[in-house]
Structures are given as structure tokens and as C-alpha cells.
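USER: I would love a firmer grasp of how sequence relates to backbone shape in proteins. This is the protein in question:
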Amino acid sequence: MPSDGYGRQAPLPARPPTTSTASTTSTAPADQVAPRRSRVGLAAQFVLQFLYIPLGFLLVLGFAVLLLWASSDAGGGTPVSGGGGPGGALGGVAATGISWRRLRIEWNGRPEEWEPFTEALLVSRFDSARKSSGWAPFELPPGGVRRAVTGLSRRDYRGLAPTEVEQLARRHGWSVDWEKSRLAEGDLHFFRLIPPPRHHGVPDLSGPPPAAGTPWGPMRARILLPLLTLPFLPRVRFLELRRSPEAYVRHLRRYLTRRLRAELTRERKADVYRSDPAGPFLRRVRVHPRHFRGAGAAALLRVAAEQGWKLDHSYPADPQGTVHLCFPDESHAPLIRAGKPL
């Protein structure tokens, strides 16, 4: 069972409901295969996609240019839509297409053809979700056990029952979240609990500082980038040009004191933090490498330890990139949502 980073075992959620339970919470049974699509509709979609997909691209691009022109004419910033902007719209247009392989599978409708097709889609989405899903601080409990999630629509498994898709997911260590899945619409949600990453090579803060060029020591000096970005980040770029580890440490003490104090006084909102019975509530901050480049990530950890903060066990240890710090908040005040305690 995964550990919470404090010597305790993090509790795992209850097992997903059984098929019979899932069937009673939706108008579509979990062991029922969706009806096949009309072959006339499939043929029409395959032929007409060569017309409507390019036309859709042109319409989206034209609308994006119109928004940019209107924004610049009004003197405002670039508008961003809630649905992901023009990039998301272009992806939505492309998703309406149908490949030759999918056409053949839907045309025949045989489960033995749907199974490898659906499993390949699941593997791709599982790999993507394992890398990118569940990292937000409000999704990570104090124990650091990450809940990676992804989904699948009916069009991607039409020839299989949801219970058969669940069997495919279990081959790869994933489970169907029956409570969030909408069987009537054919949307399946999957999850996997991933333990915190192991931290290897983290230096002993009581020992000598790592040498320059080592992973946790000062990074290599740069000249061109600091000069080009000096007007935008004058303080940290001057530090980089000075190449003084002592100056970086002084900067870190000032910078971290301000950042950590602001975090400790931040309101405990439920949409920002998450707590569970397995461990204390964690305050979290992340520090960009520009603030410790000339001194090394080990120097950052030393300065953070002076104020009671440590390397966050929930995230991978990346001394050459953004470093995540955490502080166990032992207060028992409840999280707040909409101005009220939970």
C-alpha cells in the first residue's frame, strides 16, 4: 500500500461498484453492447469528411483571425475561450473524421476487431494520463498518492460492452470509475492510484554542498540568454551574470521568506488544497530554477529547511527544473468552500 510520506499508509478508495450496481444507476446496463451504426451513415461520413473537415478548419481559422482583429482594434488582450481556444476547436473538427481502419471495424462490428482497436486507444490514453494527470495541488492529497484519470467515449468501443472495456483496462492496472461514468451517454471514466515517486540522489543537507556540474549543485553558466532577457528579469539575470553562489543564497532567503509567508497566510480554500485523514494538510510552493541556478537546488533545500519546508514527496525530484516544496500544516481548521467550512 502506498505511503503518505510521513511513515503512514495512505488509505485507498473503495473498489468500484460491481456491474450490477452500475446497471442500477444508469439507464444502460454495463454489460450491454451499443447498437451498430448504419452503414449508409458510415459511408456518408467517410466520403463527406474530405469536404467538411477542410471547410471546418477554414471557418475556425477565419473566426480566430476575426477575434484577433477585434481584440487589437479594441486595444485589449487576446481573447481565450473557455473551450481551449482555436486549437481546441481545430482538434474538435479533426475528431469528427473517421479513419479507414475505424470504418472497417464499425462496418463489420465484430468484437474481435473492436478489442485490439479499443485496447490500443486505452494504452495511449493511459500513458498520457500517467504522465500528466492528477498533478494539480488540489488533486494531490497530503500522502502524495496521485489519482490519474482519463476517459473513453462510446465511439471508441461501440462493439464492446462497458464490462468488456473494464477487463481491457484491468490488464494495464486501471479501473473504471462507475460513479463518474455515464453509461447512458456511453462515457467511461478510468482511474489509477499511483504512489509518490521515489527520490534518488537527494543530497544530505548536513553534508558538504554538491560541486558545480553535479545534478544538485550549481548549474553551468550562461551568457546570451541572461543578456537577452535582462530587461524582463533584471534581478535574477544580474545574479546569473555575477556567478556568485553566495549572492544567490541571499536572494533565496529574501525570496523564499516572502513566498512562504504568503503561502502560510493563504486561505484554506477547497479548490486550492486537499486534505485527508492520512496525514497533515500540506502547504505547497514551487520554485523556478532561475532563482537558484547559480547556487544549485541543494542550496534551495537548505534555505527552505531553515523555515521548516522540505522537498515535496508528491512530485519527482528534478534539481535541474522546477523544485516543489511542502510544509505540513498541523492546524485542524477545515477547508473552506464558498466562504463556509466543509
Q: What stands out?
A: Strands lie at 146-152, 175-176, 188-194, 281-287, 310-311, 323-329, 336-337, 340-341. The chain has two domains: 19-194, 224-341. The radius of gyration is 26 Å. Residues 1-27, 74-83 have pLDDT under 50 and may be disordered.
